[in-house]
Automatic annotation (TrEMBL):
Domain HTH araC/xylS-type: 155-252, 419-516
Keyword tRNA processing listed: no
High-level lineage: Bacteria, Bacillati, Actinomycetota, Actinomycetes, Mycobacteriales
Keyword Acyltransferase: no
Keywords carried by this UniProt record: DNA-binding, Transcription, Transcription regulation
PANTHER family the record matches: HTH-TYPE TRANSCRIPTIONAL REGULATOR NIMR
Alphabetical list of Pfam families matching this protein: AraC_binding, HTH_18
Protein name, entry field: AraC family transcriptional regulator
An MF annotation (GO) of this entry: sequence-specific DNA binding
Length: 528
């Protein structure tokens, strides 16, 4: 017999209207996509109507507000800035092919920060936005702009240079203006873009030059416009980056449209966008990769839902295989991890505060019919972004599933010994007391305490404490703390000892984890 059905036929709640007050993404562009129904996006006083299957690209720094009709579902999706060409610095309306929809949900899920590893927007998605869809007959060479850095200071410098390619401000001057070390800026440019600052600026200048040349601009004027002191220097750099001279590039790429005085790299992309829209072709989406969560001990109860495909959930010492439509209640305080199959999508439906499994309902699986999918997608967006109804109950689904399981009753007014230990370690993960120490401190039998601890958490005391520390370690590292400070907070005598344990648990160093171990958006519209 399968899991109990939640929301029987005819009982799926209606989806209310939702709204987001005026905001602007600081660093990452927004892809606003309507999955079902209709929404409105207001930008610079203009209201744009967006219907199911359509999307709008909003560059970072552009203010917008959103209103979603009753019955509609829309996703605000920040995208990794480091993976995007800087040419996309204008608002773009475009259509989302049906086979891209699951990939966009995958992108949204990664922004919430609960999945392992980082994610890239994918070259195909960028082509989809820009409208640069090859028809298979265009063999003309092209040159891609350098990717944007991620950190606030380097991104500000990059945007300055993209706006004015001829800007020759030295990195030391930028460092003074931003009150940051020159070496720090140099390191960040290299780590975040794969290029040194000097090479990144040259690459950006060459990218701008290709737009001017394609628009019919004269070579000497183009070189001067993007910051080269001499035509010879421009030609040499252009050949190094593109493999051809400016003359050959202009001959192969020149557009039939006459040049305009305000022609820029972004406007060149605009022309390509119009051509791509007319072509009617679209790139295929990447395959959604297998993924999962890091093993963790949560300080909240959470409900996860399989929107597509399947997943395997390990909770304590038990394992569940979930299929499409299944939702599972995972109580706080017990080690859990999820492995998600290729092509599958797992989404969190909501959470409730809680730190202990002692008085919480045990794990429970319910099944949602496909008729409930739109409402559940609305719930995910409303619970984890600021695009939500004016009156919204974020715990509605969590309460529904929690009520389906009988919660164990507290034994009385006296605090449960296991609960006392869990609460103390959450408050101070550096606490070094052993279970025998706790037995003496609480005045309970050591064997009974050991049995009760394993029954409640599914792990021995040392393993549970180690897992708690690794859960908190990831949170500290995601906040930007150094390995040494993280080790101190968690009770490790030396940073080297902490690093050794972290590598054993994650297969990467703390520093590597900060670079590529997770993906969580920095934008305020995500409320995760």
């Amino acid at each position: 017999m399968g899991p109990r059905l939640a929301f029987p036929a005819g009982e799926v709640p209606e989806i209310p209207a939702a709204r987001l007050a005026s905001t602007a993404n600081e660093r990452e562009p927004l892809l606003f996509w309507v999955h079902t129904g209709r929404a409105e996006l207001q930008i610079s006083g203009r209201t744009r109507s967006v219907t199911a299957g359509a999307a709008i690209w909003v560059p970072a720094g552009v203010a917008y507000s959103i209103r979603v009709d009753p019955g509609a579902v829309a996703f605000p999706i920040p995208l990794p800035a480091a993976d995007l060409p800087p040419a996309l610095n204008r608002v773009i309306d475009f259509e989302i092919p049906a086979d891209w929809q699951d990939w966009l949900v995958h992108q949204f899920a990664h922004n919430l920060g609960f999945l392992r590893g980082e994610t890239a927007a994918g070259a195909g998605l960028i082509e989809l936005v820009a409208g640069v869809h090859s028809d298979g007959n265009d063999n003309s060479p092209s040159y891609s702009p350098p990717r944007l850095p991620r950190s606030t200071e380097t991104l500000e410098i990059a945007r300055t240079l993209l706006r004015t390619p001829s800007d020759d401000t030295e990195l030391s001057r930028f460092a003074q203006q931003l009150k940051i070390g020159v070496r720090t800026l140099q390191r960040r440019f290299t780590e975040e873009t794969g290029l040194s600052f000097v090479r990144w600026r040259t690459s950006a200048r060459i990218a701008a030059a290709t737009s001017y040349l394609a628009a019919g601009r004269e070579i000497g004027w183009t070189g001067s416009q993007v910051g080269f002191a001499t035509p010879a220097g421009f030609t040499r750099a252009f050949r190094e980056h593109t493999g051809m001279t400016p003359t050959d590039y202009a001959r192969a790429n020149r557009r039939p449209t006459p040049p305009r005085e305000d022609e820029t790299l972004a406007q060149g992309v605009a022309l390509l966008s119009e051509e791509g829209a007319r072509s009617g072709s679209a790139p295929a989406p990447p395959t959604i990769p297998a993924s999962g969560t890091w093993a963790r001990v949560n300080d909240f109860h959470v409900v996860v839902w399989i929107y597509r495909g399947s997943a395997r959930v390990t909770f304590g010492d038990r394992t569940w295989n979930l299929r499409r439509g299944d939702a599972m209640w995972l109580p706080a305080g017990v080690r859990n991890s999820v492995e998600i199959a290729e092509g599958s999508l797992l989404l969190p439906l909501g959470s409730q505060p809680g730190a202990s499994p002692v008085t919480a309902p045990p794990p429970r699986v319910l099944h949602f019919a496909r008729e409930a999918q739109a409402y559940l997608l609305h719930t995910v967006v409303a619970n984890y972004t600021h695009l939500r109804p004016e009156i919204h109950d974020p715990a509605r689904i969590a309460r529904l599933i929690r009520s389906a399981a009988a919660a164990p009753l507290p034994s009385g007014d006296q605090a449960d010994p296991v609960e006392t230990i869990l609460a103390a370690l959450r408050k101070n993960p550096a606490d070094s007391r052993t279970l025998p120490d706790w037995s003496a401190r609480l005045g309970v039998d050591e064997d009974m305490l050991l049995k009760d601890f394993v029954a409640a958490t599914g792990q021995s005391f040392p393993r549970w404490r180690g897992q708690l520390r690794m859960t908190l370690a990831r949170a500290y590292l995601e906040e930007g703390l150094a390995a040494g400070e993280t080790a101190r907070r968690l009770g490790y005598a030396h940073a080297s000892g902490f690093t050794k344990v972290f590598i054993a648990a994650h297969g990467m160093s703390p520093r590597d984890y900060q670079r590529r171990g997770w993906r969580g958006t920095v934008e305020g519209l995500i409320d995760s």
